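Researcher: I'm preparing a figure for a lab meeting and need a structural model of a single chain. I don't have an experimental structure, so a prediction will have to do for now. The sequence is pasted below. Please return the structure as tokens so I can convert it later.
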Amino acid sequence: MKNGYWVQFINSIFVYSKEDQKQLSVSFWSTFGEVSKPFLRKNDKKKWMLYNTRVKGVELKFFVGRKHASVILEMNHRNEDVRLFTFELLHSYREILHCGLQSDLEWVLIEELPSGKEVSVAQVKMENVDFHRQDDWPFIFDFFMMNMLVLENNFLEISEPIRADVALFIAHL
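Model: Understood. Here is the structure written out token by token.
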């Protein structure tokens, strides 16, 4: 009986229900949105670029989980040849993309998402943070804002040739 009580007690501290997870996630992203507004204004931006890269199959994303947070440049074109071409093309610009980031980009040719979809990514990670620990949030927010701003600006420097080369590659399929 005693052991069952302790297991329930420990689970109640560390395990979140689906609804708790959803509320925590909504709270995290809402708070991040509010915290990032003045930062964006200070940097003459209205919002993050994210899905609006103007390169088909290329998106910028934030990720936060139980072990790390990431700022991600994701290549997710549905055609594998286009996705792999885009990965190699962006990788050839890695010196520009890396410039000014808090750590090096980690390049992953094939990453499987929980949905089973395969994508390619270049990401900068902050290890040992947990979005369940609200004390970590300010560090995660700073990491997100600083690295996404740099990655967006670096991407904008190369976006025109990337867009043109990807469009040309698609046209020749």
